[in-house]
Amino acid sequence: MRYPKKLTVLQMSFLALAAVLNIAGANLALLIRIPLYLDTLGTFLAAILFGPFYGMVPGFLSGILTGMTTDIYSLFYLPVQLLTGLTAGLFFYEKSFRNGKYRIPLYAFVVTLPGTIVSSCITAFLFGGITSSGSTVVVQLFHHLGLNLTVSVFCVQLVTDFIDRTVMLALSLTVLHVLPVSVLTVLKKGDRTYGSI
Fold it and tell me: What residues form DSSP beta bridges with 196?
């Protein structure tokens, strides 16, 4: 499988837009305090269009910017963003989802599991189960009911990550389905009249 080696200015602009989508989603989730993250829409779009390496770029940029502006916890979860972009790019790059929309939960689970393992370790060992996410309340509830902290974090994280990734993957596939074929072609192959780096 061949991944793009150089990106055009248009493609780099799309990666910047993808990072903004991640930031907007993360801030929305933080604002309304839901137990989801909504910060991987841009990551999925970039991973599907450009592959694993460029799939990590929006997550990296959004993690840094969100961590420096609205949510310091985002900096600590950068490895999860990078792992999600890498996994999504490896599994979804240039794949057709038209005949398998009912498999979206399966695809989402494949991307969710590695990130959940890493994020659970970060949440349990660095923060004692308490972060800015709305799922913290559920973790503390399970822990006070007698469940081990790490197990509580992993169980809650797995459920919330899975729902979050399923929603974000379905939304990203909807966006790609709505975009005209000509736009997708230019994004995937690049318009060399704008130059490349």
Answer: 8
Instruction: Find out whether 116 and 37 touch, Cβ atoms under 8 Å.
Output: no
Residue percentage of the chain with pLDDT more than 90: 56
Backbone angles phi, psi at 155, to 5 degrees: -60, -50
Amino acid of residue 104: I
Residue 35 φ/ψ, nearest 5 degrees: -80, 35
Positions in the chain short of pLDDT 50: 193-197
> What pLDDT sits at residue 195?
46
What integer pLDDT is reported at residue 130 of this predicted model?
81
> Quick one: 164 exposed, middle or buried, by C-beta within 10 A (0-12, 13-18, 19+)?
buried
**176: β partners:** none
Q: Which is nearest to 90 in space by CA: 48, 27, 131, 58?
A: 48
